[in-house]
Protein backbone atom coordinates (compact mmCIF):
# COMPACT_ATOMS: atom_id res chain seq x y z
CA UNK A 1 0.00 0.00 0.00
CA UNK A 2 2.86 2.37 0.88
CA UNK A 3 4.55 1.69 -2.47
CA UNK A 4 1.35 2.52 -4.32
CA UNK A 5 1.01 5.79 -2.36
CA UNK A 6 4.60 6.76 -3.13
CA UNK A 7 4.06 6.04 -6.84
CA UNK A 8 0.90 8.16 -6.88
CA UNK A 9 2.74 11.08 -5.24
CA UNK A 10 5.60 10.83 -7.75
CA UNK A 11 3.12 10.66 -10.65
CA UNK A 12 1.35 13.75 -9.33
CA UNK A 13 4.63 15.65 -9.07
CA UNK A 14 5.67 14.68 -12.58
CA UNK A 15 2.29 15.77 -13.95
CA UNK A 16 2.67 19.16 -12.24
CA UNK A 17 6.23 19.50 -13.52
CA UNK A 18 5.11 18.69 -17.04
CA UNK A 19 2.44 21.41 -16.94
CA UNK A 20 5.09 24.06 -16.18
CA UNK A 21 7.45 22.70 -18.80
CA UNK A 22 4.75 22.65 -21.48
CA UNK A 23 3.85 26.31 -21.03
CA UNK A 24 6.03 28.67 -19.05
CA UNK A 25 4.24 31.69 -17.55
CA UNK A 26 5.00 35.11 -19.00
CA UNK A 27 5.93 36.55 -15.62
CA UNK A 28 6.66 35.43 -12.07
CA UNK A 29 7.00 36.88 -8.58
CA UNK A 30 9.56 35.49 -6.14
CA UNK A 31 7.83 33.84 -3.15
CA UNK A 32 8.51 31.32 -0.38
CA UNK A 33 11.62 33.10 0.91
CA UNK A 34 12.34 34.40 4.38
CA UNK A 35 12.48 38.19 4.73
CA UNK A 36 16.25 38.63 4.33
CA UNK A 37 16.93 35.66 2.05
CA UNK A 38 17.52 35.74 -1.72
CA UNK A 39 16.84 33.38 -4.61
CA UNK A 40 20.05 32.56 -6.46
CA UNK A 41 19.97 32.82 -10.25
CA UNK A 42 22.10 30.09 -11.85
CA UNK A 43 23.88 29.82 -15.19
CA UNK A 44 22.22 26.43 -15.78
CA UNK A 45 19.20 24.64 -14.21
CA UNK A 46 21.26 23.01 -11.47
CA UNK A 47 21.99 23.92 -7.83
CA UNK A 48 25.69 23.28 -8.52
CA UNK A 49 25.78 25.65 -11.49
CA UNK A 50 27.55 29.01 -11.21
CA UNK A 51 25.56 31.80 -9.55
CA UNK A 52 25.08 34.77 -11.90
CA UNK A 53 22.61 36.83 -9.86
CA UNK A 54 20.11 36.89 -7.00
CA UNK A 55 16.50 37.96 -6.53
CA UNK A 56 14.89 39.24 -3.30
CA UNK A 57 11.45 38.33 -2.00
CA UNK A 58 8.65 39.83 -4.18
CA UNK A 59 11.01 40.43 -7.12
CA UNK A 60 9.13 40.52 -10.44
CA UNK A 61 10.73 38.97 -13.53
CA UNK A 62 9.91 37.71 -16.99
CA UNK A 63 10.02 33.98 -17.73
CA UNK A 64 11.54 32.56 -20.92
CA UNK A 65 11.04 28.84 -20.48
CA UNK A 66 10.67 26.10 -17.87
CA UNK A 67 11.91 22.54 -17.86
CA UNK A 68 11.78 19.57 -15.56
CA UNK A 69 14.97 18.29 -13.99
CA UNK A 70 14.16 15.08 -12.13
CA UNK A 71 11.16 15.93 -9.97
CA UNK A 72 12.05 19.65 -9.86
CA UNK A 73 10.99 22.49 -12.11
CA UNK A 74 13.47 25.12 -13.23
CA UNK A 75 12.60 28.32 -15.10
CA UNK A 76 14.83 30.68 -17.05
CA UNK A 77 14.04 34.25 -16.00
CA UNK A 78 15.01 37.65 -17.40
CA UNK A 79 15.13 41.22 -16.13
CA UNK A 80 12.14 43.50 -16.75
CA UNK A 81 12.62 47.23 -17.37
CA UNK A 82 12.17 49.36 -14.24
CA UNK A 83 12.38 46.25 -12.02
CA UNK A 84 15.99 46.59 -10.92
CA UNK A 85 17.44 44.64 -8.01
CA UNK A 86 20.87 44.84 -6.43
CA UNK A 87 22.05 41.56 -7.98
CA UNK A 88 19.69 41.44 -10.97
CA UNK A 89 19.54 44.83 -12.65
CA UNK A 90 19.03 46.16 -16.17
CA UNK A 91 22.24 44.53 -17.48
CA UNK A 92 21.63 41.11 -15.88
CA UNK A 93 21.91 38.03 -18.06
CA UNK A 94 18.94 35.62 -18.04
CA UNK A 95 19.41 32.72 -15.66
CA UNK A 96 17.73 29.74 -14.04
CA UNK A 97 15.84 29.49 -10.73
CA UNK A 98 13.85 26.74 -9.06
CA UNK A 99 10.14 27.17 -9.84
CA UNK A 100 9.11 26.33 -6.27
CA UNK A 101 10.08 29.92 -5.46
CA UNK A 102 8.01 31.47 -8.24
CA UNK A 103 4.38 32.52 -8.40
CA UNK A 104 3.34 32.56 -12.09
CA UNK A 105 1.38 35.28 -13.84
CA UNK A 106 0.19 35.67 -17.45
CA UNK A 107 -1.12 39.23 -17.50
CA UNK A 108 0.86 42.27 -18.53
CA UNK A 109 2.89 43.92 -21.28
CA UNK A 110 4.61 41.63 -23.77
CA UNK A 111 6.90 41.85 -26.78
CA UNK A 112 5.84 39.76 -29.78
CA UNK A 113 8.53 38.22 -32.02
CA UNK A 114 11.11 40.60 -30.59
CA UNK A 115 9.20 43.69 -31.76
CA UNK A 116 7.93 45.94 -28.92
CA UNK A 117 4.60 47.58 -29.71
CA UNK A 118 2.81 47.96 -26.35
CA UNK A 119 1.24 44.51 -26.59
CA UNK A 120 -0.85 43.52 -23.56
CA UNK A 121 -1.56 39.92 -22.58
CA UNK A 122 -4.78 38.94 -20.79
CA UNK A 123 -3.89 35.31 -20.11
CA UNK A 124 -2.54 32.07 -21.57
CA UNK A 125 -3.91 28.60 -22.16
CA UNK A 126 -2.66 25.47 -23.95
CA UNK A 127 0.44 27.07 -25.41
CA UNK A 128 -1.24 30.26 -26.63
CA UNK A 129 -1.79 33.68 -25.06
CA UNK A 130 -4.65 36.13 -25.60
CA UNK A 131 -3.30 39.53 -26.65
CA UNK A 132 -5.27 42.77 -27.03
CA UNK A 133 -5.27 43.55 -30.75
CA UNK A 134 -7.30 46.78 -30.68
CA UNK A 135 -10.02 48.54 -28.72
CA UNK A 136 -12.84 51.03 -29.21
CA UNK A 137 -13.35 54.08 -26.99
CA UNK A 138 -16.20 56.50 -26.31
CA UNK A 139 -16.07 60.31 -26.37
CA UNK A 140 -14.48 60.28 -22.89
CA UNK A 141 -11.67 58.06 -24.17
CA UNK A 142 -12.94 55.16 -22.07
CA UNK A 143 -12.64 51.68 -23.57
CA UNK A 144 -16.02 50.19 -24.47
CA UNK A 145 -14.91 47.05 -26.34
CA UNK A 146 -11.80 44.95 -26.93
CA UNK A 147 -10.62 42.85 -29.85
CA UNK A 148 -8.09 40.16 -29.05
CA UNK A 149 -6.01 37.56 -30.86
CA UNK A 150 -4.23 34.39 -29.77
CA UNK A 151 -0.46 34.11 -30.26
CA UNK A 152 1.81 31.15 -29.57
CA UNK A 153 3.48 31.55 -26.18
CA UNK A 154 6.89 30.84 -27.72
CA UNK A 155 6.69 34.10 -29.71
CA UNK A 156 6.12 36.28 -26.61
CA UNK A 157 8.48 37.84 -24.08
CA UNK A 158 7.25 39.29 -20.79
CA UNK A 159 8.05 43.00 -20.52
CA UNK A 160 6.85 46.24 -18.87
CA UNK A 161 5.19 49.49 -19.89
CA UNK A 162 8.69 50.87 -20.53
CA UNK A 163 10.24 47.84 -22.23
CA UNK A 164 7.22 47.20 -24.47
CA UNK A 165 7.23 50.71 -25.95
CA UNK A 166 7.99 50.81 -29.68
CA UNK A 167 11.36 52.39 -30.60
CA UNK A 168 9.37 54.95 -32.60
CA UNK A 169 7.25 55.87 -29.56
CA UNK A 170 7.83 58.48 -26.90
CA UNK A 171 7.68 57.66 -23.17
CA UNK A 172 5.99 54.45 -22.11
CA UNK A 173 2.90 52.34 -22.81
CA UNK A 174 -0.34 53.42 -21.11
CA UNK A 175 -2.90 51.03 -22.64
CA UNK A 176 -2.63 48.53 -19.77
CA UNK A 177 -4.22 50.83 -17.19
CA UNK A 178 -7.18 51.57 -19.48
CA UNK A 179 -7.61 47.90 -20.35
CA UNK A 180 -7.62 46.89 -16.68
CA UNK A 181 -10.18 49.60 -15.91
CA UNK A 182 -12.43 48.31 -18.70
CA UNK A 183 -12.13 44.71 -17.46
CA UNK A 184 -12.95 45.79 -13.90
CA UNK A 185 -16.06 47.62 -15.08
CA UNK A 186 -17.07 44.59 -17.12
CA UNK A 187 -16.75 42.35 -14.03
CA UNK A 188 -18.85 44.80 -12.03
CA UNK A 189 -21.62 44.71 -14.63
CA UNK A 190 -21.58 40.92 -14.64
CA UNK A 191 -21.89 40.84 -10.84
CA UNK A 192 -24.76 43.31 -10.89
CA UNK A 193 -26.53 41.30 -13.56
CA UNK A 194 -26.37 38.19 -11.38
CA UNK A 195 -27.18 39.75 -8.04
CA UNK A 196 -29.65 42.56 -7.37
CA UNK A 197 -29.02 42.85 -3.62
CA UNK A 198 -29.16 46.62 -2.89
CA UNK A 199 -26.23 46.52 -0.46
CA UNK A 200 -24.00 44.86 -3.05
CA UNK A 201 -24.96 47.46 -5.62
CA UNK A 202 -24.06 50.26 -3.21
CA UNK A 203 -20.67 48.71 -2.45
CA UNK A 204 -19.84 48.37 -6.16
CA UNK A 205 -20.98 51.92 -6.86
CA UNK A 206 -18.90 53.23 -3.94
CA UNK A 207 -15.71 51.36 -4.88
CA UNK A 208 -16.04 52.54 -8.48
CA UNK A 209 -16.29 56.18 -7.38
CA UNK A 210 -13.50 55.75 -4.82
CA UNK A 211 -11.13 54.10 -7.29
CA UNK A 212 -11.39 56.88 -9.87
CA UNK A 213 -11.96 59.80 -7.44
CA UNK A 214 -14.15 61.17 -10.21
CA UNK A 215 -17.06 62.21 -8.00
CA UNK A 216 -16.13 63.37 -4.50
CA UNK A 217 -19.70 64.28 -3.62
CA UNK A 218 -20.84 60.78 -4.49
CA UNK A 219 -18.05 59.25 -2.41
CA UNK A 220 -18.80 61.37 0.66
CA UNK A 221 -22.52 60.58 0.41
CA UNK A 222 -21.67 57.08 1.62
CA UNK A 223 -19.70 58.25 4.65
CA UNK A 224 -21.26 58.58 8.10
CA UNK A 225 -21.31 62.30 9.09
CA UNK A 226 -20.03 61.60 12.64
CA UNK A 227 -18.25 58.23 12.51
CA UNK A 228 -16.41 58.94 9.26
CA UNK A 229 -14.60 56.05 7.61
CA UNK A 230 -11.85 53.64 8.67
CA UNK A 231 -9.15 52.59 6.22
CA UNK A 232 -6.22 50.24 6.55
CA UNK A 233 -3.16 49.12 4.61
CA UNK A 234 -3.52 45.64 6.12
CA UNK A 235 -5.52 42.75 4.71
CA UNK A 236 -7.94 42.85 7.66
CA UNK A 237 -9.44 45.64 9.74
CA UNK A 238 -9.14 45.79 13.51
CA UNK A 239 -5.40 46.37 13.89
CA UNK A 240 -3.58 49.15 15.70
CA UNK A 241 -2.65 50.73 12.35
CA UNK A 242 -6.25 51.32 11.21
CA UNK A 243 -6.71 54.98 10.28
CA UNK A 244 -9.84 57.08 10.88
CA UNK A 245 -10.87 59.84 8.47
CA UNK A 246 -13.65 62.40 8.74
CA UNK A 247 -15.99 63.28 5.91
CA UNK A 248 -14.08 66.52 5.39
CA UNK A 249 -10.82 64.56 4.97
CA UNK A 250 -12.30 62.68 2.04
CA UNK A 251 -13.66 65.88 0.49
CA UNK A 252 -10.18 67.42 0.65
CA UNK A 253 -8.31 64.28 -0.44
CA UNK A 254 -7.63 65.58 -3.94
CA UNK A 255 -6.41 68.95 -2.65
CA UNK A 256 -4.05 67.14 -0.27
CA UNK A 257 -2.94 64.48 -2.75
CA UNK A 258 0.74 65.31 -2.17
CA UNK A 259 0.48 64.92 1.59
CA UNK A 260 1.93 61.55 2.63
CA UNK A 261 0.37 59.58 5.47
CA UNK A 262 2.01 56.78 7.44
CA UNK A 263 -0.04 53.59 6.97
CA UNK A 264 2.13 51.09 8.83
CA UNK A 265 4.50 48.35 7.67
CA UNK A 266 4.45 46.39 4.40
CA UNK A 267 4.06 42.63 4.44
CA UNK A 268 7.21 40.56 3.94
CA UNK A 269 9.92 43.23 4.10
CA UNK A 270 8.32 45.32 6.84
CA UNK A 271 9.10 48.64 5.13
CA UNK A 272 7.32 51.83 6.23
CA UNK A 273 4.36 52.64 3.96
CA UNK A 274 3.76 56.30 3.16
CA UNK A 275 1.12 57.38 0.64
CA UNK A 276 -1.56 60.00 0.20
CA UNK A 277 -5.19 59.40 1.03
What topology does this entry show?
Elements: H1 2-22, E1 27-30, E2 38-42, E3 51-56, E4 60-69, E5 72-78, E6 95-98, E7 102-105, E8 108-112, E9 115-125, E10 128-137, E11 143-152, E12 156-158, H2 175-194, H3 198-212, H4 216-220, E13 229-231, E14 243-245, H5 247-251, E15 261-265, E16 272-275
Antiparallel strand pairs: 1-4, 1-7, 2-3, 4-5, 5-6, 8-9, 8-12, 9-10, 10-11, 13-14, 15-16
Quote the beta fraction.
25-35%
Q: Helix amount, in percent?
A: 10-25%
**How much is the average pLDDT?**
85
> Main sheet?
5 strands, antiparallel
Termini gap: 60 Å
Number of strands: 16
Subunit arrangement of the protein = single chain
Give an overview in words.
This protein has a 5-stranded antiparallel beta sheet. A hairpin with a 6-residue loop joins strand 15 and strand 16 (272-275). Helix content is 24%, strand content 34%. The protein has 277 residues and is an alpha+beta fold. Residues 5-10 and 12-21 have low confidence and may be disordered. It has 5 helices and 16 strands.
Amino acid sequence: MKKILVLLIIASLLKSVGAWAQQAPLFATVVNLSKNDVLNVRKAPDYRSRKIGALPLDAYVGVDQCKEIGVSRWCKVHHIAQRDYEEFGWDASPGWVNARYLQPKNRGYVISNGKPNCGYALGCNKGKCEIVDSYETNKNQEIISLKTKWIDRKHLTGSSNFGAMSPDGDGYCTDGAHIEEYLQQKRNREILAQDSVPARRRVISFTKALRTLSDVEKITSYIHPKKGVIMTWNVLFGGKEDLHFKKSDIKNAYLNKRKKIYWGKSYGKGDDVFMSL
